[in-house]
Structures are given as C-alpha cells and as structure tokens.
Amino acid sequence: MSPQAAAYFLGGAADEVTLQQNRAVFDRYALVPRVLTGMRHGSTALSLLGRPLAHPILLAPVAYQRMAHPDGETGTAMAAAALEALMVLSCQASEPLEDVARAGATCRWFQLYMQPTREATMTLVCRAEAAGYEALVVTVDAPISGVRNREMRAGFQLPEGIAPVNLQGLPPAPPPEGSNVVFDHFMAQAPGWSDIAWLHSQTRLKLVLKGIMHPEDARRAIDLGADAVIVSNHGGRVLDTAVPTLLQLPAVVRAVAGEVPVLLDGGIRRGTDILKAHALGASAVLIGRPVVEALSVRGAQGVAHVLRLLRDELEIAMALCGCNALEQIGPELLRQL
C-alpha cells in the first residue's frame, strides 16, 4: 500500500489505545485444553439469521478496497465465496454494490450508514434489496469521525479514481445550522433510535446493528426489532480509549439473553481468538484489517489464503480443546490471566 492508504486502513483514533487493546485483550485469556477426547466428525458449521454457514468467520465492511488492490471489493467477494465466508459490503465501497453482489455468492449483507435524509437512505436500501442482499448492517457508532492523527500526519486523501460510488448522486445533506460543527452539524444530522424503528418498518431485510457496546443499547436494539447485534468499537477508529470489544462482550451477551445472535469484531488475528470469542458468547466474528492487508499483498488470492488459515487454526484449536462443534465451546475452556 501507499503510506497514505496504510494510514487509512491500519490506523486508529488519536493515540490508538483502543486499536492496540482490541488485540491485546485476547492474550489476557488462556485456553484450558482437553485431552483423550477422540475428536471425530468435527464441524465449524452454524446457522446465522436463517442462513447456513460453513464457519463463523465473516468479512467486516471495509471502505475503498480498490485503494489496497485493483481487485477491490469484487476480489474480496470472490475470495469469500471460494472459502464459504459471508461478506459484509461497505456502504463506502469503491465498486457498485450490484457488481460486488454478482461477483460473490456469499456477499449477502450490506453495511449501511443512515444518510442525512430518509430519501437517500431508502435509495440505498432499495438497491440492496434488488441486488439480493439479505441483511442491512447499520453502523451506529460513528455519527462523527474519530480524531485520526495517523491519517492526518500521512496527509491522507482519496486517490484519483477512488470514490464512494454507491453514495454518488444521492440527495445532498441539509445545510448546517448554528456555529458548532460537531453538535450543530454532524450530531444534528445523526440518526436516533426513532430512525432505527423507521428503517425496520421500511424494509424486508434482516436488521443488524453494528457498534453496540453498552448492554442497555443492546436491549433497546432488540426491542426495536434488531435481528442481531455486533459488539464493535469500529476497530478503534472512532473513540480512543473505548473499552475493548472482547472485554465488553460478556455483558452484552447477558443483556441479550439468547434472543438474537451477538457477533464481535476487533482484534481477531488467530483461530484461537475466534474460539475465545465464541467461548464468551459470540455466535460469529468479523475480520477487517487482515482482509485488506491480504488483499493488498495478493488480491483475491491473498484474501482466500487468510480465510483458509483462520479456519484451519480454529479447527485445530477446537480439536485440542475437545470440541467438535461450535456449541461445545464454553467459558470453562478459558482462564483469565
């Protein structure tokens, strides 16, 4: 990647404390292996929102993937399909959502930022429905961008030929009011819970809220019809020093009480990380930076290779912990250091 692209994809907010802690918290948990279990006929299969999946590794939404490699989002979608992984396409993708859907049979979830007008939001929703997407992943934790100092130092700007093509031509945002750009402009246009209720009433697609960290927010999401929630702090890119996702996962799982699936992203780098997340209650995990790093190195082939490695590592970790199905993975396999 160019230094500017690397700053965008790999950096976090401010001092990048949350970015680092998302990864580090996994090492605070040790696995307690089981022996002489005679593991046979093992499987990582699961069902998620009515869709059978071969494994619990999803591809998180990452914007502007053509900035990492010419294969872009279509290459990632082809790799996901080859490795039977569900892909979540970013609202800010650098390729049309219809093209990406055709490129990968498993590109079935569309990440949505609520737009400044409901008309613009519904334009995107209707396109996603027509293209065959099965769920909307509404990102709710970034009404305003974080203070991304690494990007600032690198002088980041989108290179020529890269743009959020799915947002072009949408109705413009209302003009700002007042003198405070944060509160009178960005936050004045930010969605609220009433917008989530409205969206749920307007679409037949499953509704997933991404960026849920507080147990009370998880409960409210379910009350408004959410079909799943994703425990996420935006990869440490929005609010620095926010709690690491794995640390907050058990509290959200308790609040949800099994009513809907709870997913997790942030810091997943090994198959053992996936097992730990599952032991603490996650139904599945999403990976972002490993995908875009692999894409930058070898395009679609690189993404496929990373997915294969993670699934292999998960299966090995399960076998050594005495689990031949995801349902057998529980907190008794973990010891907090």
UniProtKB/TrEMBL annotation:
Glyoxylate binds at residues 8, 113, 148, 234, 237. Pfam families: FMN_dh (PF01070). Its cofactor is FMN. GO terms for molecular function: FMN binding; oxidoreductase activity, acting on CH-OH group of donors. The keyword Ligase does not apply. Residues 1-337 form the FMN hydroxy acid dehydrogenase domain. Gene3D superfamilies: Aldolase class I (3.20.20.70). Keywords: Flavoprotein, FMN, Oxidoreductase. FMN binds at residues 61-63, 90, 111, 139, 210, 232, 265-269, 288-289. Coiled coil: none annotated. InterPro entries: Aldolase_TIM, Alpha-hydoxy_acid_DH_FMN, FMN-dep_DH, FMN_HAD. The active site is at 234 (proton acceptor). Belongs to the FMN-dependent alpha-hydroxy acid dehydrogenase family. This is Alpha-hydroxy-acid oxidizing protein. The lineage of its organism: Bacteria, Pseudomonadati, Pseudomonadota, Alphaproteobacteria, Rhodobacterales.
